[in-house]
């Protein structure tokens, strides 16, 4: 690691050449060869070579010189060592201050991202709770559609029990079929929206977990850096860790570190906005579907009411015609009785006329005359015969008319019974069942 640049505030010490040992001079021993030499036989057992006084003085001078040079070198070394120690202490203090300041700045950065992550976690948690409430509304609304669907299908099944000719594909049936189709489509839409809400909630929780893990790492890192920032030279919990003086290969850079948290927050924010949009969509869906179902219910009820009025009117008209038919039947029966009596009443005059003709046929000889009386009697019989024939013909016609009236009466009574059955099905069965149709508040999922 490069040493930080330090501004020197005093002049540097003068440079000097360091002292070194001088090469030892080798002296040749001078032999006494003069007349005073003692190298004779008398000194044969003593030292034969000794230093001269000049050599002794020279040797002492060299020692003095080396001692002075050593002192100067030591003094210069002490000055350099003191200066280096002071410089090292100042550099170490500045480096520690810079490191502490860097740790403080790092703590601020960590605190910023930690606060942002915590806010995003809280927002996502709150948004997920709101979406869960909307999902519950969807589930309630989906359950609430079962009742209208059961009512509509039951109405169709009940109306299938109508008798001919009332078993027609009328406006009520068309509205009921539209209602069934509408409820099926709404149920499919609610199911798809429920699945979408479930997926969004899972996505919210996944991004919340990512943010929580990042936040947890930030908290742990903040505690570590805060502890590191509190270390001091006087602390008792510091020690050497030579192996820690290195950069990890997997370590991130400040840019990638900040981008990691930024991307987590961005993705979480994106999911939160998607969740907000989905909640708004669910609100609109529930509002529209509940309104559509109530409007269709009102249309079906209106069709039922109108059809029941038509049935009542038709039934009243049939009953009115039945009364007229019954009165006519009574009159015709009286007419038939009168015709029979009239025919019966013609029997005596016929007997009288025929008896007269029979008795006059016994007149003797020329008395058997075609006189006026004979012609009148024959004319009377013919008139009575013709009258009786007309009466019998009219009687047959009246009896046929009576039978026709009876058939019409039976048809009217049968039709009235059919109308009564249709009114009972539509009003007593279907419309009474439709009173249990859920209210808009329940269809919207609030209950």
Summarize the structure.
By secondary structure, this protein is an all-alpha fold. 76% of the residues lie in helices and 0% in strands.
Verbal overview:
The chain is mostly helical. The protein is built from seven helices and no strands. Helix 2 runs antiparallel to helix 6 (372-434), helix 4 (254-345) runs antiparallel to helix 6 and helix 5 (347-360) packs antiparallel against helix 6. The longest helix has 92 residues, at 53-144. The two termini are 70 Å apart. Mean pLDDT is 85; it is low at 1-45.
Uncertain regions spanning at least 5 consecutive residues: 1-45
The 3D shape can be described as rod-shaped
Per DSSP E runs of 2 or more residues, the count of β-strands stands at 0
Between the first and last Cα atoms, what is the distance in angstroms? 70 Å
Counting helices, strands and paired strands, the structural category is mainly alpha
CA-based gyration radius: 67 Å
The number of helical elements comes to 7
- Written as H for each helix and E for each strand, in order along the chain, the element string is HHHHHHH
Major sheet: none
**Roughly what is the average pLDDT, rounded to an integer?**
85
Level of helix content? over 70%
Percent in strands: under 5%
Write out key terms for the chains shown:
447 residues, mainly alpha, 7 helices, rod-shaped
What's the arrangement of secondary structure elements?
Elements lengths: L52 H92 L1 H14 L11 H60 L23 H92 L1 H14 L11 H63 L5 H4 L4
